[in-house]
Amino acid sequence: MIYTVTLNPSLDYLLTLDSFEPGALNRTLSDQYLAGGKGINVAQVLHNLGTAVRALGFTGGFTGLELERLLHEAGVTTDFIRTAGNTRVNVKLRAGEETEVNAAGPSLSPDQFEQLKEQLGRLGSGDTLVLSGSVPTSLPGDTYEQLAAICVETGCRFTVDAEGDSLLKTLPYRPLLVKPNHHELGAIVGAQISTPEEAVRHAQKLLAQGAEQVIVSLAGAGAVYVSRSLSLMANAPEGTVRGSVGAGDSMVAGFLAAVSAGRSAEDAFRFAVASGSATAFSDCLCTEEQVLSLLPHISVTQLEGGNGQ
Prior knowledge:
Shape: globular
Largest sheet: 6 strands, parallel
Strand content: 15-25%
Radius of gyration: 19 Å
Number of strands: 14
Distance between the termini: 33 Å
Helix content: 25-40%
Number of helices: 10
């Protein structure tokens, strides 16, 4: 079973407009409430791809109930811990370009964090945990490190899609996969990354610190995959980008879905790129049909320097 953890989920209010003018009356073409949060996006795409998944994390108030209703309606199994505060509402504006207004979210208590750790302590060697997104300020700065340590104790594999120290502190625990984009990786290593070769070179630094596999998304330039034995580059298929929200989460989901199905690292990487692209080309998270339609348009080539040294 794959489990996702979303520490600060959201109810996303998506507004689509022809144009947006600050300080003026603007009218929408459409509006929609969506279940949001990086781990929740991963869970939804995994479900869409036919992979068993359970979403964990924290929800509260009437907004949390609506978030859970949307997930259950979509067929996603959940086991959230309830909080006193309301799940946050994030506003997403699509009017030629994307604008996001993200709320802070409720405070979480030490007791609630202990409940989550108890949940994760029941996972085992046949499970995979996805740690994804930011850590609320009410939780310890080493939250992901603590959760990674639990995975080592139980034998549960885990992946990490987070920024900065939240990612770096998990590396000694040997995550199955980490997936920074080129901006996030550049911030970690203190360098600007603009080519696949640069992405590979800097991704190998994460391998040296303990990561087993790294995928670096390069936006329209595609993505690279790096392990200790392999370095791969994949192109981004042609298509009209509708939005970037959830594309990186879809890559994580696509990779894990393919690995769960017993596919090779190269095939899983292709599936990850197809999943991320399918979401970018859609108004919502990708479906299996959309992913499969893009697979023939993605080519993978081997790059030099794949030994992780």
